[in-house]
Amino acid sequence: MIEERIVPSEVTMVSVISACAKLGNLNLGERVLDYTRRFGLSFNAVMINALVDMYMKCGAAEKARQLFDECVDKNLVLYNTFMSNYVKLGKVREALDIFRGMIDVGPKPDRVTMLSVITSSAEIGDFCMGMQCHAYVLRNGIEGWDSIGNSLIDMYTKSGKQELACIVFDQMPNKTIVSWNSLLAGFARNGDLESARRVFDDMPDRDIVSWNTLIGALVQESFFTDAIELFHSMQKDGMIPDEVTMVSVVSACGYLGSLDLAKWTYKYIEKFGIKRNIRLFTALVDMFARCGDSQSAMKVFSTMKERDVSAWTAIIGAMAMEGNGEGALDLYNEMLGQEIKPDEVVFTGVLTACSHGGLVEQGKHIFNSMKEQGITPHIVHYGCIVDLLGRAGLLDEALDFITRMPIEPNAEIWSAFLGACRIYKNEKMASQAYEMITKSGRDKTGIHVLLSNIYASAGKWSDVARVRMGMNESGMKKIPGSSLIEVIGVVHEFTSGDESHALMLEEINYRLREEGYVADLSNVLIDTNEEEKELLLSRHSEKLAIAFGLVSFGRGMPIRVVKNIRMCWDCHSYAKMVSKVYDREIVVRDNKRFHFFRQGLCSCCDYW
């Protein structure tokens, strides 16, 4: 048209500018604007609206704002265009500022306006503004538009007013699948899984968003087995999962520590060609790391064409969980070499790896280098250093470090220190620390339990009774030990004191005693006779899970156990002996790290 010297009209140029907006091509859009000026075309409201939309969609919000401010005859369409684009860019406060200016001088808001305002109110948690919008919607009879209803549901659930969201939903004349998903997402976001499941079951139709929302909510609330079961139901229903589905499923596999399930999930993703974006790749690295398979984690990591800081965090975490401090440091240095700026989480992973690997000097150096990277250490990083020093037996240095911290030490800091006091049987320093904790008001259940255990190991039963009485008076309860083991796709859970598989345990104990195993009765934390102590020790949850694994798996197959709390010294010695006597590889993941037991030795070298 230009080549044939045909002069375009304003309508033509508006269409061309809109096309540039859809392409997201700012360069081309500004060339079109130059043509418009060259041809002397008038910049009417429609033209200004198209230009504003083009600039916003091309990421030039400042130029769009300049045009908007210079426009003297702003109409409703221009206001709506500007606000809706601001909302899409996440600039919801700016959108509300435009709305307030519109109310003062501009035209009467319509349903498109209110959609932007309600969405913005939901994002910033402005319940009052949201309620006023709802009242306006009702007064002006525009509540029948399903998009308005959906945004109100979203606003009320984000404000914690689920009952009002339900009223809006029930009164909607046209409930689309988006409406159902809005209510489902609201319940899921608020952790109300019972209501979310009820909505999900009542849905006349479900799409991929429905399934992803509920599976993701189950993972978020730590119902990992339920999430996997729902994923299988999704498959039976004929719904094809996408990368969002698989991120949730992969995360669930990792937290369950089920390597067989993890491998099946990885093959499923490959078989069905599910797109692996950086988020799914990172989740796969983390999954294999949590399942104790750092080789597979590294294999996935090495195939990533693009790696962000989260991906590096995941693979460094894999090294940390198996106590490979040197490997974590090598990866950290490689990351710096690729000019990836580390964040707070990366430093947590590297410091944890140094702590588990006994790399005291290296850990101190990493901690001191944080400010060089522009990061101020947080409480978690100070906790890592306390743990690092404590594990190495440097209790005086650790306590001095705590007292010199520029921020108030929390329960996790003191737990790390008391844990070290227990390892090195230093009840004197533990008592000193406990006095400081009590004065600071930072006493938590875990701290009381640690101190009680320290006194019990030293045979100071009157002190044990005093601490536990204080726990009872405060309503504190100790978390019971439990262990998980997967057999043929079914996850079995054992709790300490369970009498299941008692006969198998007796047979194992007999064989171990023949090989020289002697139970470490100092790990029994109640005052009773030796026979009772030995019985209590034999019923620790990981021993029950190991016994079940020996019964359930064929000769030579590895036994994998996931425990919710730290493995005690006696169970650690027990697992080493079982691995030797029964010629089995035993893998135990406790709440700190992995232990790989082979031929009577552990990968942690008894340093954990």
How does the SSE layout of this entry go?
Elements (H helix, E strand, L loop, with lengths): L9 H14 L2 H13 L6 H13 L3 H10 L5 H13 L3 H14 L5 H14 L2 H13 L6 H13 L3 H10 L5 H13 L3 H10 L5 H13 L3 H13 L6 H14 L2 H13 L6 H13 L3 H9 L6 H13 L3 H13 L6 H14 L2 H9 L10 H13 L3 H9 L7 H13 L3 H14 L4 H13 L3 H13 L8 E6 L2 E6 L6 H13 L15 H9 L2 H12 L6 E5 L5 H13 L4 E4 L4 E5 L2 E2 L6
Parallel strand pairs: 3-4
Antiparallel strand pairs: 1-2, 1-3, 4-5, 5-6
Task: Name its key features.
6 strands; 32 helices; mainly alpha; 65% helix; six-stranded mixed β-sheet; 608 residues
How would you describe the overall organization of this protein?
With 608 residues, the protein is mainly alpha-helical. Helices cover 65% and strands 5% of the residues. The protein has 32 helices and 6 strands. It has helices spanning 10-23, 26-38, 45-57, 61-70, 76-88, 92-105, 111-124, 127-139, 146-158, 162-171, 177-189, 193-202, 208-220, 224-236, 243-256, 259-271, 278-290, 294-302, 309-321, 325-337, 344-357, 360-368, 379-391, 395-403, 411-423, 427-440, 445-457, 461-473, 502-514, 530-538, 541-552, 569-581; strands at 482-487, 490-495, 559-563, 586-589, 594-598, 601-602. It has a 6-stranded mixed sheet, covered by helices on one side. Helix 20 (325-337) packs antiparallel against helix 21. The model has no long low-confidence stretch (mean pLDDT 86).
